[in-house]
Write a structure and sequence with these properties.
Layout: E1 7-22, E2 29-41, E3 44-56, E4 62-63
């Protein structure tokens, strides 16, 4: 008996906005990105998460905020 299950992860960009501040590496503008992440197991959605990411528009680095 062979059991095949497919696990998949999708990322969808919901929106992009200008964020305050500048990139610490190159001084470029910072963009705020809202991303929906969806995990699927055998074509059944398991989890939805909406995260906010920060990217530099000049050097395309992902910026991480530390509180």
């Amino acid at each position: 008996m062979c059991l095949v299950c497919l696990c998949d992860e999708e990322e969808t960009e919901l929106g992009r906005q200008q964020a305050p501040g500048s990139c610490p590496y190159c001084g470029g503008k910072v963009q705020m990105l809202d991303v929906e992440r969806k995990w699927m197991f055998c074509f059944v959605p398991l989890c939805f998460k909406i995260k906010r990411k920060y990217l530099c528009s000049s050097c395309d680095r992902r910026l991480v905020l530390y509180h």
